[in-house]
Structure formats: structure tokens, C-alpha cells
Design goal:
D-amino Acid Aminotransferase, Chain A, domain 1; six-stranded antiparallel beta sheet; Rossmann fold; 40% helix
Length: 321
């Protein structure tokens, strides 16, 4: 294995998901120290690039979530600094982070994703909210899911079960970003499938089934211990389990992702998997989904993180060579 030298874990940032990122960073940094690596954790702030130039790490594990963390920005900075890092290239991050764009790309590859519409706040203001909302319900039916087209952790996401709930859901969504992605609700089993590639090609980990006590896997249900029940592996039959794994790997490859990703899906009553989101910087907190899948696969988080770092260094050396 490549000598990794000094590892920098980046966490924090200024997105709405800052607190989650800090928790992810702490957990991965601790796991890496437990397997003997020299690890520094620092925030992503205005001094970052100067710090990278004057105190150069050997490899970086970015664990920034949301804007600037998953939209290709921090990856672009690390590329400009000439540093190897875990994760996808900037262009691939941008594709995956923009949900409507990612949905269009995977749909062309034959992956099912819920019917949807994308509307900006300006469109509602200029063309009339009432008429547009009526058209949304007529086309997509109810229930609906309203969420920002860029972002994560379910911030700004609302499940709309009646037409009179839709205006408030749009306001909530626009508070976190725009345009809004309005999707048809798919009834079924919610699962997340993590994909890893440590140099031998992408492979899917066991699917994690998500059963929030509130019925909605919102921010509170994601990061408050005891509010969501998880089943790993998911309670799917063999055919459905194979299907969600295949979809997650196909999405990872179709979008040109590297190292790790997490695909969120709904398996409907007929066993059909519907892709909801693709995450290029999955959470690593105590309640996050990827670490649960890692444990179910009989892997150690620290060892896996070390392997991802080694793969990133090897990729960087091959590219430089």
C-alpha cells in the first residue's frame, strides 16, 4: 500500500449541512487514527488555500456536505492545489449534485426515476403561483415531494399529501435553494445503497432499509438517534436486493463518479427500484447510512477510509505520470 504520510480531513464549511459535516469529519478522523495514520482535521474557510500551500498534506479526505462540498467546488480547489483527494472529479460532482440533471442522465441510461417538474421562484412570481400549482397536481398527482434541486440532508424537503399543503412546501423549499424539484411520490420501501471503489471497480454494499417513526426521513429523522429504525441488509427479496445494487452501481458509473457514492431509492410494491438521489459525499456520522452498510459488510471504517485514501494517491500518481 502507498505510504499515505499526513492526511487532511476537511469538514465544516458554510453550507446548511455544516454541523453534519463536522460530525462526519470527526468520525472519519478518529477511525483513521485508530488504524495508525497521521491525521489533521480542519475547517474549510478563507484560509484554506493558503494553508494548503504552506503546510501541504499528502492526501485529503473531504467530508464537506451540501454546497461547496458536493457541487465540485472544493474538488476544484484541491485539484488546483495539485493534491490527491478521495472522491469524484469536479465535473462529475456537478452532475450528481444537480438533481434534475442527474435524473435526466440516469433516465437516459434506463434507470427509473420518479416523474417530476422543475420550477424557479421567479417563474411562480411572474406566471402566477395558483395556476402553476394546479398544473403540478394535475400532471403529477398526489402525494408529491418538494425539494431543492441542489442540496442534501432533506433540508427544504416536504411531502405534500393535499393540494393546500403545496404553497407552504414551495416556500420552505425556496428558503434552502432553487429551483424546486417537484416529484411524484412513490410508495414503497426506502433504501440506500452505498457504492465503493478502492481500485478494483465499483461494488455495492448491503442496502440499508430506512423506517422513520414519523413516516418521513427528514433532517430530524436522519440525525437524531432513536427516531429512525434501520434494517441492514434491507428486508428485500433476493431479486429486489440485486436490482437496487445494480441500479446504484449503474448510477455511479453513468455519472462518472469515483471512490464512493450513495444512491437513495424507493422499491415500489412491484419490486421496481426508483432512483431518488445520488450523493458524492455520503454522511459518516453515527446515524449515517454508509457506515451502517460498511459494518454490515464486515468491513472496518478506518481500514476502508485508508484504502480509499491509498486509491486516491495512486490515481493522482498515475495522472501526474
Amino acid at each position: 500500500m502507498t505510504d499515505l504520510g499526513r492526511v487532511l480531513v476537511l469538514a465544516g464549511g458554510l453550507s446548511h449541512e455544516r454541523d453534519v459535516s463536522l460530525r462526519s469529519g470527526r468520525r472519519v478522523a478518529e477511525a483513521l487514527r485508530e488504524v495508525g495514520l497521521d491525521v489533521e482535521q480542519r475547517d474549510a474557510d478563507a484560509d484554506l488555500l493558503a494553508s494548503l500551500r504552506h503546510d501541504v498534506p499528502d492526501v485529503v479526505f473531504p467530508l464537506l456536505h451540501g454546497v461547496s462540498g458536493e457541487d465540485g467546488a472544493i474538488q476544484e480547489v484541491l485539484s488546483l492545489a495539485g493534491l490527491p483527494y478521495v472522491g469524484s472529479a469536479p465535473a462529475a460532482c456537478r452532475l450528481a449534485f444537480d438533481k434534475p440533471v442527474a435524473k435526466a442522465i440516469v433516465r437516459r441510461a434506463g434507470i427509473a426515476t420518479p416523474p417530476s417538474a422543475v420550477l424557479s421562484q421567479a417563474t411562480f412570481r411572474e406566471l402566477g403561483a395558483a395556476v402553476l400549482l394546479d398544473a403540478l397536481v394535475a400532471r403529477l398527482g398526489l402525494p408529491l415531494v418538494v425539494k431543492p434541486s441542489r442540496g442534501g440532508s432533506a433540508l427544504g424537503t416536504t411531502v405534500v399529501r393535499s393540494a393546500d399543503e403545496l404553497p407552504a412546501a414551495m416556500v420552505e423549499c425556496f428558503a434552502y435553494g432553487e429551483p424546486a424539484l417537484i416529484e411524484q411520490w412513490i410508495d414503497g420501501t426506502e433504501v440506500a445503497v452505498s457504492v465503493l471503489d478502492t481500485g478494483e471497480g465499483p461494488r455495492a454494499l448491503p442496502a440499508v432499509e430506512i423506517v422513520p417513526e414519523s413516516g418521513t426521513y427528514d433532517y430530524h429523522a436522519r440525525y437524531t438517534a432513536g427516531t429512525t429504525e434501520f434494517f441492514v441488509p434491507a428486508r428485500l427479496d433476493g431479486e429486489a436486493a440485486a436490482a437496487v445494487a445494480q441500479v446504484a452501481v449503474a448510477a455511479h458509473q453513468t455519472l462518472g463518479l469515483s471512490d464512493l457514492s450513495r444512491t437513495d431509492l424507493i422499491v415500489d410494491r412491484d419490486g421496481v427500484p426508483w432512483l431518488l438521489d445520488i450523493n458524492v459525499a455520503p454522511g459518516m456520522t453515527e446515524t449515517s447510512l454508509l457506515p451502517q452498510a460498511v459494518q454490515a459488510a464486515g468491513l472496518d471504517l478506518g481500514v476502508l477510509a485508508r484504502e480509499l485514501l491509498a486509491a486516491a494517491v495512486d490515481r493522482h500518481l498515475r495522472t501526474a505520470g
